[in-house]
Design brief:
This protein has 674 residues and is α+β, with helices and mostly antiparallel strands. 38% of the residues lie in helices and 21% in strands. A 9-stranded mixed beta sheet has the order 2-6-7-10-1-11-19-20-21. It has a 5-stranded mixed beta sheet with strand order 13-14-15-16-17, sandwiched between helices. The longest helix is centred in the C-terminal third of the chain and has 30 residues. The chain binds zinc ion.
Length: 674
């Protein structure tokens, strides 16, 4: 049997603000995990060391950074928010509590679209299908200090204590290790584009936790196999789908919650399934001339089905009668009364007689709730994208093995052993920790100006609309534009847009190329027409020379693209020279290296160093000379030893000092030797 994994993630990202979250200490998080390091307890003060009487002052830049992330990830931004104290004791936490956010996070209900088309990894199971990963919430908190365990004790370094930390929680929408990795990579690119975080996993600036469970069906569906399909039932398909969702909620949550919790859960699955609904619909019933107007139906779904949610010992006749009145008053075909308090979900279908054709006995409607979501296992300490992918894949295998052996998966937290390539048990969970959250009394609530809020001019607020207008283009959009507008191949577009500075450079090169191609005098038409006719081929050259060749030269010199001395104009001219065959690819390598070393323009270097191509080279004559000089080899070639073409090309490159175009030369050889 194959099991379907359900994976959610919690991702912590250190923000790269100038100072810490609640004090003026420097936030040098980039140095904390790096080789050069930072002297222990250098960036500390009474506030982040939690001396008595100190007061935290929130860092507005950090709040704005999280809002940027929220906007980029299509979240709803809070109109008001606050900080809360999360209480727990650990020596890396100076206050004895962490300032975090509990019930009013800055951002909620976002989504990231992962798409095979845009990401370009065809090997993935979901390639070609775009897949939404929903973001449940993003909130802001402070990081903890760092403990180092030595032989005779433990050292504590509070440089990191109070560094602004963004926590992002997804819905359990991820389906594989590859997808989780891609999701994390996408987030990293987005945060870098927004310039809010470097999100380097190896440095601990981005930390991923995975929770994963297996189930034997993608989603709990109502089992209708015993139902006679010929029976006409009011809204059969719609109501079965709905019942399937109610069973899913009952299976996941069990029978111990309040009515409001089940209502929230219903709202969530209706949203997830993109089913239209109205919650708390006012029902107006008439009693003679008296209007009973304080009545509300819990949900009206798709303008057809009314749902009444109960948490009680059993559904009474009064419940059914009330539902019946509601659906008649609203002229709806069907009502469902559902009671979550029972171990087995209890429900009653209530038909509006005006719609009834034939109603089957509802007891033949049997739910299959066996395929419950499995036990949730958490994996922590994943400090690379590869570790995220491998740990998930390993865990899927491990849990599948357990389930196939007929055993139970234990609810626990597991770590990841990179060398062994295995997850290992860290601690078995016994109930959830009670952090006794309460609102942070030292920080006033936060207010935001959104389209909906009205604030007075003299009020302190953060202007969300303004932040929104200033957002840069998002990576996924940019990738698509680089493909559509510039003709880049997917794989090149992905690499180029992953680094904002490289993307900027590539855009400048492309814009310069329009004119260089026109100036080359080798093409007919306007700069635009020439570009449009050749852009795929040119973009391929740009991609290859920019990423592989220039990237390689820079890497060898330990330089970044920002430190690149070749101007976009010169690089565009260089690409034009290759495209118009003014320089052979062999000499182009040398030319590029000289350009990087001198910062000079390619045509001058070409002339000075005699690297020019075929202009004054008589290729035809050279080919004939080589053929005449090597009669034995020619004979062998003609006898079928075609691998000898390499020898001829080698000779011609040597004779021409690398100026000959190898493709052209090969064609000439083939002509003359056939
Ligand atoms: Zn401080």
């Amino acid at each position: 049997m194959s099991y379907k994994p359900t994976i959610g993630m919690e991702i912590h990202v250190e923000l790269k603000t100038a100072t810490k979250m609640f004090c003026g200490c420097l936030n040098e998080n980039e140095k904390i995990g790096s080789a050069e390091g930072l002297a222990p307890n250098k960036n500390v003060c009474p506030v982040c060391l939690a001396h008595p009487g100190t007061m935290p002052v929130p860092n507005v830049e950090a709040i704005k950074s999280v809002i940027k992330a929220g906007l980029a990830l299509n979240c709803q931004i809070a109109e008001k928010s606050k900080f809360d104290r999360k209480q727990y004791f650990y020596p890396d936490l100076p206050k004895g509590y962490q300032i975090s956010q509990y019930d009013e996070p800055l951002c909620q209900n976002g989504q990231v679209e992962l798409s095979g088309k845009n990401i370009g990894d065809d090997s993935r199971a979901f390639a070609g299908n775009s897949h939404l990963i929903r973001i449940k919430r993003i909130h802001l908190e402070e990081d903890t200090g760092k403990l180092s365990h030595i032989s005779d004790g433990t050292l504590v370094d509070y440089n990191r204590a109070g560094v602004p930390l963004m926590e992002l929680v997804t819905e359990p929408d991820i389906e594989s290790g590859a997808e989780a990795k891609e999701f994390c990579q996408e987030l990293q690119v987005i945060f870098r584009e927004l310039e809010i975080a470097d999100a380097n996993m190896e440095k601990g600036q981005m930390r991923c936790e995975v929770n994963i469970s297996l189930s034997n069906e993608p989603r709990i569906k109502a089992n209708v196999s015993r139902m006679d399909d010929k029976t006409e039932i009011v809204l059969k398909d719609e109501s079965y789908e709905l019942m399937g969702l109610l069973f899913e909620i009952h299976t996941k949550l069990g029978s111990i919650y309040k009515e409001i919790n089940y209502q929230d859960a219903i709202e969530e699955v209706l949203k997830r399934e993109k089913i239209s609904y109205v919650r708390e619909k006012q029902i107006i019933l008439k009693f003679n001339d008296l209007e009973l107007s304080n009545l509300f139906a819990d949900f009206i779904v798709d303008n057809k089905i009314l749902i009444e949610v109960k948490v009680k010992n059993f559904i009474t006749n009064d419940d059914v009668r009330q539902t019946s009145r509601y659906i008649k008053s609203e002229n709806l075909p069907l009502g469902i009364v559902v009671n979550f308090k029972k171990e087995k979900l209890e429900y009653k279908r209530v038909i509006n007689p005006a719609f009834e054709k034939f109603e089957n006995n509802s007891s033949s409607f049997v739910a299959n709730s066996r395929s419950a979501l499995g036990t949730k296992v958490e994996i922590k300490n994943l400090n690379s994208f590869r570790a995220v992918e491998r740990a998930i894949d390993y865990e899927i295998k491990r849990q599948t093995g357990i389930l196939e052996a007929g055993e139970k998966v234990v609810q626990e937290t597991r770590g990841w052993d990179e060398t062994k390539g295995e997850t290992f048990s860290q601690r078995v969970k016994e109930g959830s920790a009670d952090y006794r959250y309460f609102p942070e009394p030292d920080i006033p609530p936060l207010k935001f100006k959104t389209q909906l809020t009205e604030l007075k001019d003299n009020e302190n607020f953060i202007d969300v609309e303004k932040i929104k207008q200033e957002l840069p283009e998002m990576p996924m959009k940019k990738r698509q534009r680089f493909m559509d507008e510039y003709g880049f191949a997917l794989v090149d577009a992905k690499i180029i847009t992953a680094a904002p500075e490289l993307a900027d450079y590539a855009e400048n090169v492309i814009s310069e190329l329009h004119n260089w191609l026109l100036d080359s005098g080798q093409f007919e038409g306007t700069a635009e027409e020439i570009w449009n006719n050749n852009r795929e081929k040119v973009a391929k050259l740009v991609g290859g020379w920019l990423i592989n060749k220039l990237g390689g030269l820079l890497a060898a010199r330990k330089l970044s693209y920002v430190e690149n001395t070749i101007t976009a104009e010169n690089f565009a001219e260089f690409v034009t020279m290759i495209f118009t065959r003014r320089v052979s690819s062999t000499n182009a390598n040398k030319l590029l290296e000289r350009m990087l070393e001198t910062g000079g323009d390619p045509s001058s270097i070409l002339e000075d160093e005699d690297l020019g191509g075929g202009d004054n080279l008589d290729l035809n004559k050279l080919v004939e000379e080589i053929i005449n000089k090597n009669p034995d080899t020619v004979a062998q070639f003609k006898n079928g030893k075609t691998a000898l073409m390499k020898f001829f090309i080698g000779q011609i490159m040597k004779e021409s000092k690398g100026k000959a175009d190898p493709v052209e030369a090969e064609n000439l050889f083939l002509q003359k030797l056939s």
